[in-house]
Amino acid sequence: MPALTRREFAGAAAAGALVRARDAAAAEDPTALSLAEAARRIRERTATPTGLTQACLARIEAYDGKLNAFITVVRDQALAQARTLDAEQKAGRLRGALHGVPIALKDLIDTAGVRTTAASRLLQDRAPAEDAAVVQRLKAAGAVIVGKTNLQEFAYGAGELSAFGPARNPWALDRGTGGSSSGSGAAVAAGLCFGALGTDTAGSVRQPASFCGIVGLKPTYGLVSIRGILPLMPSLDHCGPMTRTVEDAALMLDQLAGYDPLDPTSVQPPPARYLEAMRRPVSGLRLGLPEGYFDDLDPEVAEAVGRAVALLSDMTRGAKPVRLPPAAAFAVGGPLGAEALTFHAALLKEKPDDYLPPIRRRIEAQQRWSAADYARTRFDLQLLRRAIDGAFTDVDLVVMPTERGLSQRLEDMIARSMGTAPAPAVPPAPSNIAPFDAYGIPAISVPCGFSRSGLPIGLMIAGPHFSDGRVLALAGAYEAAAGWKNRRPPLSPDTPAPPVGGYTWMSSR
Predict the structure, then answer these.
(1) Which of 19, 38, 94, 377 has its CA 20 to 30 A from that of 252?
(2) CB 334 within 8 Å of CB 496
(3) Is 120 among the residues known to form the active site?
(4) Neighbours of 353 (CB within 10 A)
(5) What Rg do the C-alpha atoms of the chain give, in angstroms?
(6) Which has the closest alpha carbon to 167: 67, 62, 66?
(7) Residue 155's closest CA among 177, 182, 128?
(8) Which residues contact 238 (CB under 8 A, 6 or more apart)?
(9) Which residues contact 84 (CB under 8 A, 6 or more apart)?
């Protein structure tokens, strides 16, 4: 065996120290485990569903007053479910790969007998009769549902506007989490659960993943059922896992993916095992750098993403510029936004004043579109989704920054949304995340560094339809090489939570 250089020895020692520190932390606090590690300990009977659930509930009790990640915590229900799973574990019967693992759900995903509010006063007492299809799948795999996470009201924005108050970023409590899956991002990053579900219509899984320093996967459109999820725009709505590692995301996707004959958007996917696919080699992959997606970057984002692209180029056959088709016509504010009226028309008539004012204005603005506008755009969307795979003729995957800037101050976000602060003098750069909802192709955000002030930065990897396994493979290989997955937010019970104002909200307790 060749001798290690001084740099290699130092690197190996540092990596070993990180593993030892992580294992020591996990011995004291099981929430420091990854989802995959927690599931393995359940299988090996070195952890119990009740033990993991109690640890998550204790951490929610300790930290959610600062983070506001949850709208509803189902403590008694989660413990009862965990005790049932304990008995099955003891008898040697595991329901599936997530047996006994605590999971959280974005609070627009229906849960039987547990309120699903979409973070709105309008639905504050709504308790569905049935679980959403994804909840049925998680429960069949043995997951313990610990609660419903905060979000932008009706998923219509970046996470700063909720009838229950905004979620806060665990890395800096005065900053936004990104949205609309704001609470899911905060809860996973802070260790309040081992994984969570988010929804993604214009980047709402990947933006909070980027800003909260976790992994967020938007699968191929139709791969994961959206039946039983309150809609924003069904033509663009996706549901996907938010986790601390790529392995965790692959493990969750294995449980979530599948054809649902009762969901009109569902597709029959080719057979796939995503956890297995994630472990395949990536040295033969050809990478593309989409033109325009690297423009107007924050300098610290540019530096971190530049290092990531250089590393990925060394790990694969290299990277070259590519061009992706334009997708601005399919933005949430465009003619497809008229789909929001299908759900909201009656509520707007009955209780218009119960909406947060900016959300009401955004929904009412969709009334300007004609039937012809909508039909033409819907047809063009189908053409775009048939054409997008052609952009991958000479490359296998594309890589780019998830977001071009860093997480913003919550008060600034609220002031702009509420109209109490002027719009920025320089318009923001076009979104890197929204086009991939229009394309309908898989896209994942993984941590690729931190700003000098300690704010996370995300790298996005995407591929053609049903290349979810390949996307996971490259993300997993990069994660292993870069080592960012071992970073945790500098959060303690004594961390002060600065006041945030700008609008009035209800208590979630």
Answers:
(1) 19
(2) no
(3) no
(4) 7
(5) 22
(6) 67
(7) 182
(8) 199, 200, 201, 205, 218, 219, 221, 224, 226, 437
(9) none
Token pair for 110: 């229906």
What is the per-residue burial (b if ≥16 Cβ within 10 Å, else e) of 384-399?
Answer: bbeebeebbeebbbbb
DSSP 201: S
- Is 180 designated active site? yes
Tokens (6 digits) for 1:
């065996």
Residues in the chain: 509
Q: What is the DSSP pairing of strand 456-462 with strand 195-200? A: unpaired
pLDDT tens figures, 267-302: 998 889 999 999 999 999 999 999 999 999 999 999
> pLDDT tens, 193-245?
999 999 999 999 999 999 999 999 999 999 999 999 999 999 999 999 999 99
Burial class (CB in 10 A: 0-12, 13-18, 19+), 90: exposed
CA dist 180 and 487 (Å) reads 24
Q: Which of 120, 204, 235, 431 is catalytic?
A: 204
- Between β-strands 102-106 and 144-149, what pairing exists: parallel, antiparallel or unpaired? parallel
Count of C-beta atoms within a 10 Å radius of residue 283: 9
| Catalytic member of 34, 120, 162, 180 | 180
For the chain, helix, strand, coil in percent to 5 are 45, 15, 45
Q: Which of 106, 148, 218, 485 is catalytic?
A: 106
Scan for tokens 């290299």, then name that residue. 318
Helices 357-364 and 340-350, axial angle in degrees (round to 10): 120
The domains of the chain, with CATH numbers, are 30-282+402-486 (3.90.1300.10)
The DSSP call for residue 336 is G
Specify the 3-state DSSP secondary structure of 458: strand
Q: Say which residues have a Cβ less than 8 Å from residue 98's Cβ, sequence separation at least 6.
A: 35, 39, 138, 141, 142, 143, 251, 252, 255
N-to-C CA span, the chain? 59
In this structure, which amino acid lies at residue 219? Answer: P
Count Cβ atoms below 10 Å from residue 481 Cβ, excluding itself. Answer: 12
Q: Identify whether the C-beta of residue 34 lies closer than 8 Å to the C-beta of residue 59.
A: no
Q: How far apart are CA 430 and CA 449, in angstroms?
A: 22
Crossing angle, helix 246-256 and helix 35-44, to 10 degrees? 70
